[in-house]
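Sample intake sheet
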Amino acid sequence: MTGQTKPTAAQPANPVDSEAILRELAPDTIPLDSLVPKPANKAKAIRQLLAVKHQETGWNLQLAIYLLASLGYDYAMNRDELLRVWQHCIIKDFNEDCNEDTAMTLIGLYYQGHKEVLRPLLAGCRNSDGALSEELFPFYAEQLERNPNDFLAALATFPTKEQQQICELTGEGDGGGMGPEDLRKVHHNLMKAGGDVSARCARSYRAGDKLMKESNSDLPAETPKK
């Protein structure tokens, strides 16, 4: 949903049941599979989310902002609020409000067609580790396979060393490297795209995949259960 809905109502003064509202509108994991209230319910949902946003902090606040952006309500403002939180992940200043859940809200916006959030998501690799890496690097790999032109366009805005880092981490995937079919498709996409950025990414992508597979080959094999 890429439409923009203008503000319609002020937040109510009385407290609301934030948990109940968020659970009703976002019962599944983020990013949402769908969030399309019927026209008669959309205005109500927006009013409820504005009330939640007005009184909450931390993850509940981020979730309300994400849902408002997903509904097209003051999209640019809500997106930018999420990006300001995401900046703490990029610079790794140990702000506990930014984590893999923040990444998933931005990935959710990207899946809705908001391509401008791809570059900030790629920048997230600068200090990514642990659970955040497990969300980001497979997402990078998916985009390099499915949307290589968008990926390369965003990648080209980074310095050469960061381009190499991003593509190497992409090749690492979820920590086990990439499958043969994924390698073949990505290689084909990058060769088809051509240019220095694409060639550099191809080399780093293969290096990341090789590194993970060599690292995993040193791990002891699991003992079969009796």
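Comment: Residues 129-218 form one domain. The two ends are 52 Å apart (CA to CA).
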